[in-house]
Amino acid sequence: MKTLTALLASPRKPGNGEIFMRAVARELGSGWQLEIIRLIEWDIRPCRACYSCLFEKCPQRDDMGEIISRVISSDAVAVVAPTYFLGANSLIKRFIDRGLMFYEFIDKMWDKPMVSVTTAGIDGMEGYAKLMLDSAVKIMGGRLLASVVVYGAFPGEAIIGEKNQSLVKLVADSIVNGRVSSSNENSIVCPLCGGDSFRFLGGEQVRCLLCSNTGSYKVDRGRVFMSIEPGEHQLFLSLQQAIDHAEWLRSMKKRFLQLRTELKSIVQEVSRVGKIIHPKETKKVKEDEEARDSQLPSGS
Questions:
Q1: Could you tell me which residues come within 8 angstroms of residue 130 by beta carbon, excluding any fewer than 6 positions away?
Q2: How would residue 221 be classed by pLDDT, with cut points 50, 70 and 90?
Q3: How far apart are CA 288 and CA 139, in angstroms?
Q4: Cα 140 vs. chain centroid, distance in angstroms?
Q5: Pairing mode, if any, of strands 76-84 and 2-8?
Q6: What pLDDT is stored for residue 227 in this prediction?
Q7: 163: burial class by Cβ within 10 Å (0-12, 13-18, 19+)?
Q8: Does the predicted model carry a pTM greater than 0.85?
Q9: Cβ-contact 188, 196 below 8 angstroms
Q10: In order of start, what are the domains of the chain with their CATH numbers?
Q11: 71-101 pLDDT, tens per residue?
């Protein structure tokens, strides 16, 4: 029995993404088992930017280690999130912000079959949400087999209609056969990473927003051709480059120690500017309300 693990970044239970993945699992058949991780139910704490996980273990005592363990043991992974104000729900961002932890397990996660599923309530209004989910897959070291956007505002609409049903079959087929599938065969993609989101920099310069590499484009007979070259820092174009980037990050600690005295004086100088507003006033109001409520007669 093979396992498909779905990382669901939605506060809805179930949301359209979960309903879609259940339909995909049904399409996969009896040889597959779907395991659903609703990220909202798991303790995923914000990254402290301490870089400890690059050298030892992450000091956060939360559920990230368990989630990574389940990703590693899975045969395929789906990263799923709804669109909130043109971006993916913040649950997926909190998860991927802990991405430095992935480097410890990058050899086990590398090239794992993965898909991304973005849901949106209005046709064409997914904004940059799809890019966020594709990035999450790549940062985990996954092989992006399919990236789809499913439209439907109400729970259940994600699997209604011929178009959405075809997306269910496309995602299931890509997982079963382990091959890259596209819902738009005419899309323009980065020749390095397969991303389909770009920033046009003026002239004929262009940057892929998935792998952040820069190059040029040209239009010939109505068709757009991309020429993108890899830069110095690569996060996920190859396993060795991912490992090299982790080593570069570790080397930055030595550089920081060399510059610490100089940086400290700069920070101290600008730290005198501005005023920090602390939440203690709000906290005191809440405590006063709780104290007042505790003194009310029963049934009041």
A1: 116, 118, 147, 149, 197
A2: confident
A3: 46
A4: 9
A5: parallel
A6: 94
A7: exposed
A8: yes
A9: yes
A10: 2-185 (3.40.50.360)
A11: 999 999 999 999 999 999 999 999 999 999 9
Residue 286 has pLDDT above 70, yes or no: no
Look up residue 46 and give its two tokens.
């914000």
Mean pLDDT of the chain: 91
Residue 271 pLDDT? 85
Q: How far apart are CA 252 and CA 245, in angstroms?
A: 11
Radius of gyration of the chain (CA): 23
For CA atoms 118, 121, 125, 129, give the dihedral sign.
negative
Of 181, 91, 93, residue with least CA distance to 143: 181
CA distances in angstroms from 187 to 82, 142, 195, 224, 273, listed in the order given: 22, 21, 10, 10, 49
DSSP string, 82-145: EEETTEE-HHHHHHHTTGGGGGGGHHHHTT-EEEEEEEESSTT--TTHHHHHHHHHHHTT-EEE
Task: Supply 216's token pair.
Answer: 């040029």
Read off the DSSP letter of residue 45: P
pLDDT tens, residue by residue, 39-76? 999 999 999 998 899 998 899 999 999 999 999 999 99
Closest of 215, 219, 180 to residue 199, by C-alpha: 215
**What does the pLDDT read at residue 16?**
95
What's the CA angle centered on 217, arms 215 and 222, to 5 degrees?
Answer: 165
pLDDT at 283 exceeding the cut of 70: no
CA distance linking residue 57 with residue 96, whole number of Å = 17
Residues 120, 154: Cα–Cα separation, whole Å:
10
Mean pLDDT confidence for 164-181: 93
Contact 96, 139 (CB under 8 A): yes
